[in-house]
């Protein structure tokens, strides 16, 4: 497919897409050619030209973009973005944001369950929290290099891993992030997934270094309500006693704090120190607000006798001794 993108007095040619490529892939191709982020792109197609308001996951053929199409590109200013209709979303007054030049770096929180890594990556890459959630197996196993990720690395056979990752109570972590980084560097030219740990401030980098493009996620462990239940007379596996949800959230750039998430920019230049610094500041704010918990050192209170406890080991011992098995997280 050959497309022409007209920008003022320039004409750019795109040849790396097909009819089944998505609108988001088109916008990323335009960004590569022009430097204009998808957030600031207004695309017009057809005759007379009309603004294309397709969804990011709509295919080019479904939008009506065909081989030889001329696409007119305009760059939206901040004031024009501000005038766009706002989505009816919940209040953003408690959302963590960092002011940067031309806008804000913002935390986009995912639902707290063991699928939040898939939601976070899906939102960053596809602007959809469902696209990778609908088939967790396809999101990982079919893009996995069998030589690099052997049974030894996976800690189980490939079939067992496939069965395990398909379960909603199985969380993604370092292996899955490494798999995604390896695969999406080809699809989106993303060289690095950067995961920032709230407790330590450590940045884990999955990919190939400080060049190309990168994305950011925030890891904050386990938080909010923890419950010990289905207690048996012999407590062997402590992890089965807790509703232990690993928590990953996404980082995005938004022109204003009131702008709809559809205007988010989630893919950044790997050399962009501003976004890196703002993302670490968000993690630091989360730490100050106690928006993180780890099983070894979280503080709990037995909801029955009100005794204060620290960590999962003390909670399990307390449950053995008293039969109390409902615990609330507190600070």
Please characterize this protein's 3D structure:
This protein is α+β, with helices and mostly antiparallel strands. It has three domains: 3-76, Phosphatidylinositol 3-kinase Catalytic Subunit, Chain A, domain 1 (Ubiquitin-like (UB roll), Roll), CATH 3.10.20.90; 97-222 and 246-288, Cathepsin B, Chain A (Alpha-Beta Complex), CATH 3.90.70; 299-329, no CATH class. 27% of the residues lie in helices and 22% in strands. It has ten helices and 15 strands. The chain has helices spanning 23-34, 60-63, 78-82, 116-126, 136-140, 151-154, 158-165, 174-187, 273-288, 311-322, and strands spanning 3-7, 10-14, 41-45, 50-51, 70-75, 97-100, 103-108, 190-197, 203-207, 213-219, 248-254, 268-269, 299-302, 308-310, 327-329. The strands form three sheets. Strands 6, 7, 8, 9, 10, 11 and 12 form a seven-stranded mixed beta sheet that branches. Strands 2-1-5-3-4 form a five-stranded mixed beta sheet, with helices on one face. A hairpin with a 5-residue loop joins strand 13 and strand 14. It starts with a strand and ends with a strand. The model is unreliable at 85-93 and 223-244 (pLDDT under 50).
